[in-house]
Amino acid sequence: MTSHVHDTAQWLIRAIRSTLQANNAGEDGVDEALVRLAQQDTSAAALTPPSPRRLPACRFLPDVVASTLLVAPDVAAALAAVEEDLHWAQNPNYSNEAMGQPHYMDNYAYAEVIGPNGAYAGDDFLLGLFLLGPGLNYPNHSHPAPELYWILSGASDWRVRDEEFSPREPGETIWHEPYVPHATNVGLQPMLAAYMWTKDVKQRALLV
């Protein structure tokens, strides 16, 4: 089991790194995030297998993994292999009431690959997967960590500060500077994105 978790986590990390390098190098934040990813200890000795955990939003995984095949086939294959070993979680600062949507928590989850609940602890760095259900609004929030999102599945609209929402498609990246408020509206299909926090990762996101 330990060998399986290491092999599949390594596969996913390599797939994310190589596909981003090939398709998105030079975009805002991508090179910085990839440098920090390369600095992480993801050796077999550093492996701490996560405790697998699923949440209601995981019902979207078959659809988003299938859609990811169109954008990043190697990432999709790795996701299918590692999915049962992921620990899906939620920000304790969030609730249906706080987010202003009665079913928000049943349609939202994230899983770390590198981080406290991931396969590797990381050195002030997070790599994970972020899942939002269709029609969901992720309201304005911020955090001290610089953040890169890479959309794998699902069209969505993104906003920084109080600017207008801008449409984003699978394959695109979004970079958020520290403490800059940002928000997301998901379209008719669920959204899956890979994310990286490159430093100052201890403080969770707070609603603005």
Structure characterization notes:
The chain has 208 residues and is an alpha+beta fold. It has one domain (2-207): Jelly Rolls. It contains five helices and eleven strands; from the N terminus they run H-H-H-H-E-H-E-E-E-E-E-E-E-E-E-E. The chain has helices spanning 2-24, 30-38, 61-68, 73-82, 96-99; strands at 88-89, 108-114, 126-132, 137-142, 147-153, 156-160, 166-168, 173-176, 182-186, 191-197, 206-207. A six-stranded antiparallel sheet has the order 1-2-3-10-5-8. Strands 7-6-9-4-11 form a five-stranded antiparallel sheet, with no helix packed on it. Strand 6 (156-160) and strand 7 (166-168) form a beta hairpin. Helix 1 packs antiparallel against helix 2, helix 1 packs antiparallel against helix 4 and helix 3 (61-68) runs antiparallel to helix 4 (73-82). The longest helix has 23 residues, at 2-24. The protein is globular and about 45 Å long.
